[in-house]
């Protein structure tokens, strides 16, 4: 007899929310790194 767990759909929903938060955090971190690189490059070009 096959038994299904009633919490399977809830777990998938929780995992999806967790991944969305991770994606947002990685995007923010990438944006900060890009801004830092552009700022350093701009300062370098200004002094050269």
Automatic annotation (TrEMBL):
Alphabetized UniProt keyword annotations: Membrane, Transmembrane, Transmembrane helix
Top-level lineage group: Bacteria
A Pfam family the protein falls into: CoxIIa
UniProt protein name: Cytochrome c oxidase subunit 2A
Residue stretches spanning the membrane: 21-45
InterPro entries referenced in this protein's UniProt entry, alphabetically: Cyt_c_oxidase_su2a (IPR012538)
Organism: Aquibacillus rhizosphaerae
């Amino acid at each position: 007899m096959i038994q299904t767990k009633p919490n399977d759909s809830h777990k998938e929903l929780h995992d999806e929310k967790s991944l969305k938060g991770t994606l947002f955090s990685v995007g923010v971190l990438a944006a900060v790194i890009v801004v830092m690189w552009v700022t350093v490059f701009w300062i370098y070009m200004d002094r050269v």
